[in-house]
Design a protein that fits this description.
about 600 residues, 13 strands, EC 5.3.1.9, SIS_dom_sf, gluconeogenesis, Glucose-6-phosphate isomerase, Phosphoglucose_isomerase_CS
C-alpha cells in the first residue's frame, strides 16, 4: 500500500516522527555512557524515548506491508526460525535498540559471564550455567580454575549411576530392582526439571517430581509405589531448604517402615554440596551429586538437578543431546554480532515492549502439548531474575523493568485468555511451534499462523459491517489489533532442540538484566518470604505445643492464623487413611484429604492484586 501511494515506510516514518530521521541514522554510533547513574540517563535511552513518541501511533497492519522490513526481521540459526516482524517497531527502532545494547556494554558483559567474572555482585559469585553444557575439551575459568573437568566428573558419575538404575544392577535393600523414582526439589530444582522431563516424555513415567509440602501432593507422588522398589532423589544445594527437607523426611519415614534405617542409603541419593548433612541424614556421601555456587537454582536444569532425573528416565544419550543443543545457543550467544544474535534480539524486544511501549505482560504459547511446562518454568526464570526494583548498585529504578509471564499450550490458551488479549490488554504474544510432518497437526498449525495476524490486524467496523453483522453486535466483534507478537519455530522437538529452547530463554532474560542494569541472579524477595515464614512457624508451634496466644502480628494475620489453627483440629487423620497393608497409597483416600483440606485452603487463601 505504501509504495502504490508513492510512500515508502522510510518516508512515512519521517512524517510520523516529525522528520527525526537524523537521530535514526546516528543511532548506531557509539554514545558516551554516563559515569554514574541508571541506563535511563544515557543518550541511547533518551533517543528511544523520543523515538517511541514518534511511532507510537503506527499500526501493525501498515508496518506489515513493508516486505523489506519483514524480511529483515526474520532470523535463522541452527534450525531455529525467529520472526519478529509483528513487533510494533521499525528498522530504525532496532538501530536505536542496538545502540542501547552497546551503551549498556552487553557484549562486554556476555564475555565477562563466560570468563567466570563475579557478575552476581550482591552475592559475589560468578554466573556459569553455560559451563554445565560445555564440551569436555572447552576451557571456562572461574577463580583461576578450569571448571569444565569438574562438570564432566559429575556428568560421568550421572551416566554411570543412571545406567545402573536403568539396567537393574542397582537394587534396593531387599534385593528388588528399583522401578520408580521420586525426585524432591523446589523452585528451580522442580520447575526446570519438570519442563524438560515433560517435553521429552513419550511413554510410561519412571520418575515422579515432588515439590509441594502439601501432604496431598506427597500422597499423589506415592500413589501406587512400593518402598522396596522406589529410589528417592533429594535436590538441595545446602541440604537445608525447608520445603525440600520436610518432604525428604516424610519420604525417609515411609521408606524406613519397609526397608529399615540401614536400607536408606540404597533408596535415597542427593544432589547437594553439603556432604556433612547428607551423611547425617543417613545417605552415602558417595551417592551425592555435586553442583556449584556459580549455578543459580533457576538456571540449574543442566546440572545434576535436572540431568539426574532425566538420565534415569531417558538415558544419558538424551542428556548429552540436550546439553549439545544448549551449547549450540551458548556459542551463538557468545560469538554472533549483536544484530544477528537471537537471544540479544529477544532481550531487546522485551526491553522495547516493557520499558517503552508499556506492555508489561508476555504470553508464552507453545503450539505443542509437550511444551506444556515451558511457561511455568520461564515464569520463574524471568520473573525471579528480573523482578527487581533497584539497579546493581542499589539505585531505585526510574523506569519499568521485569515482565509478567503466563501461558498455556496452543488452543488451550485461545479458549482461556485470548479474549482479554484481543480486546482489553496489550500483551506480547510469543508462540513457539514445533514442526511435525503429520497431517492431523494441520488444525493446530492453522491456529498458530492465524492468531498472530488476528492480533496484529484486528477487525474494523467496516469489515464487521461487510460481513453482515448487525449494528448492535458490531461493537462486540471489532478489535483494534496492533497487538505485538513474535514467532519461534523449531524443526522438531527432541532433546537437542529442547536444549536450544531452554538456552534461548535463559540468555534472553540475562540480556534484559544487562541492559536494565539489574542483578538477574539473586532473589532477595524470595528470601524475605522465607524469613517471615520462619517466624510464623515458631508462632504456630508455640500455640499448639504450649497453648500460647499469638502475638506480634497485625489484626488480619492474627485473625487468619487463629482461624487456620482452629480449623486444623477438624483435620486429624490416621496413617491408615494413606497407606494400606502393603504401604501403597490409594487415590480414594486422597479424595478424602482433598475434601478436608479444601476448607483449610479457603480459610487462609490470599489473593493479591497490583494496580
Amino acid at each position: 500500500m505504501f509504495r502504490k501511494e508513492g510512500l515508502t515506510l522510510y518516508s512515512l516514518l519521517q512524517v510520523k516522527s516529525g522528520g527525526n530521521i537524523h537521530a535514526c541514522m546516528q543511532a548506531c554510533r557509539p554514545c558516551s555512557s554516563p559515569a554514574t547513574g541508571l541506563i535511563s540517563s544515557s543518550i541511547a535511552w533518551r533517543n528511544l524515548r523520543e523515538h517511541v513518541d514518534g511511532i507510537f501511533d503506527l499500526h501493525l497492519k501498515d508496518l506489515l506491508q513493508d516486505e523489506r522490513r519483514c524480511r529483515d526481521m526474520i532470523k535463522e540459526y541452527d534450525g531455529i526460525v525467529l520472526d519478529y516482524s509483528r513487533q510494533r517497531a521499525t528498522s530504525c527502532t532496532f538501530k536505536f535498540l542496538l545502540a542501547l545494547a552497546k551503551e549498556a556494554g552487553v557484549k562486554e558483559k556476555i564475555d565477562m559471564m563466560f570468563e567466570g567474572k563475579h557478575i552476581n555482585k550482591t552475592e559475589d559469585r560468578a554466573v556459569l550455567h553455560v559451563a554445565l553444557r560445555a564440551p569436555r575439551t572447552e576451557k571456562i575459568v572461574c577463580d583461576g580454575k578450569n571448571v569444565v573437568p569438574d562438570v564432566w566428573d559429575v556428568l560421568d558419575k550421572i551416566k554411570c549411576f543412571s545406567e545402573r538404575v536403568r539396567s537393574g544392577s542397582w537394587v534396593g535393600q531387599t534385593g528388588k530392582v528399583l522401578k520408580d523414582v521420586v525426585a524432591i526439589g523446589i523452585g528451580g530444582s522442580y520447575l526446570g526439571p519438570l519442563f524438560a522431563y515433560t517435553a521429552l516424555q513419550t511413554g510410561a513415567e519412571l520418575v515422579q517430581l515432588l515439590a509441594n509440602v502439601d501432604p496431598i501432593d506427597v500422597a499423589i507422588a506415592l500413589n501406587g509405589l512400593c518402598p522396596e522398589t522406589t529410589l528417592v532423589v533429594i535436590v538441595s544445594k545446602t541440604f537445608t531448604t525447608q520445603e525440600t527437607m520436610l518432604n525428604a523426611k516424610t519420604m525417609r519415614t515411609w521408606l524406613i517402615a519397609s526397608v529399615g534405617k540401614e536400607g536408606i542409603a540404597k533408596h535415597m541419593v542427593a544432589v547437594s554440596t553439603n556432604l556433612k548433612l547428607v551423611k547425617e541424614f543417613g545417605l552415602d556421601p558417595d551417592n551425592a551429586f555435586a553442583f556449584w555456587d556459580w549455578v543459580g537454582g533457576r538456571y540449574s536444569v543442566c546440572s545434576a538437578v535436572g540431568l539426574l532425573p532425566l538420565a534415569i528416565q531417558y538415558g544419558f544419550n538424551k542428556v548429552n543431546q540436550f546439553l549439545e543443543g544448549a551449547w549450540s545457543i551458548d556459542s551463538h550467544f557468545r560469538c554472533a554480532p549483536l544484530e544477528d544474535n537471537i537471544p540479544v534480539i529477544l532481550g531487546l524486544i522485551s526491553i522495547w515492549n516493557v520499558s517503552f511501549l508499556r506492555c508489561p505482560a508476555r504470553a508464552i504459547l507453545p503450539y505443542s502439548q509437550a511444551l506444556q511446562k515451558l511457561a511455568p518454568h520461564i515464569q520463574q526464570v524471568s520473573m525471579e531474575s528480573n523482578g527487581k526494583g533497584v539497579s546493581m548498585d542499589g539505585r531505585p529504578l526510574d523506569f519499568h523493568a521485569g515482565e509478567i509471564d503466563f501461558g498455556e499450550p496452543g488452543t488451550n490458551g485461545q479458549h482461556s485468555f485470548y479474549q482479554l488479549i484481543h480486546q482489553v490488554i496489550t500483551a506480547v504474544y510469543s508462540p513457539t511451534h514445533v514442526c511435525e510432518p503429520i497431517s492431523n497437526h494441520d488444525e493446530l498449525m492453522c491456529n498458530f499462523f492465524a492468531q498472530p495476524d488476528a492480533l496484529a490486524y484486528g477487525k474494523t467496523w467496516e469489515q464487521a459491517k461487510a460481513e453482515g453483522i448487525s449494528d448492535d453486535l458490531i461493537p462486540h466483534k471489532i478489535f483494534t489489533g496492533n497487538r505485538p507478537s513474535l514467532n519461534i519455530l523449531l524443526p522438531t522437538l527432541d532433546a537437542y532442540t529442547l536444549g536450544q529452547l531452554l538456552a534461548l530463554y535463559e540468555h534472553r532474560v540475562v540480556v534484559q538484566g544487562f541492559i536494565w542494569g539489574i542483578n538477574s541472579f539473586d532473589q532477595w524477595g524470595v528470601e524475605l518470604g522465607k524469613s517471615l515464614a520462619g517466624k510464623v512457624r515458631l508462632s504456630m508451634n508455640s500455640v499448639r505445643m504450649k497453648g500460647e496466644e499469638l502475638k506480634g502480628y497485625n489484626y488480619s494475620t492474627t485473625y487468619l492464623l487463629n482461624r487456620y489453627l482452629k480449623g486444623k483440629t477438624l483435620y486429624k487423620f490416621h496413617k491408615s487413611m494413606l497407606l494400606d497393608g502393603k504401604d501403597k497409597v490409594h487415590l480414594r483416600d486422597i479424595r478424602q484429604l482433598v475434601l478436608l483440606f479444601f476448607f483449610d485452603l479457603i480459610y487462609h487463601m490470599t489473593i493479591t492484586s497490583y494496580t
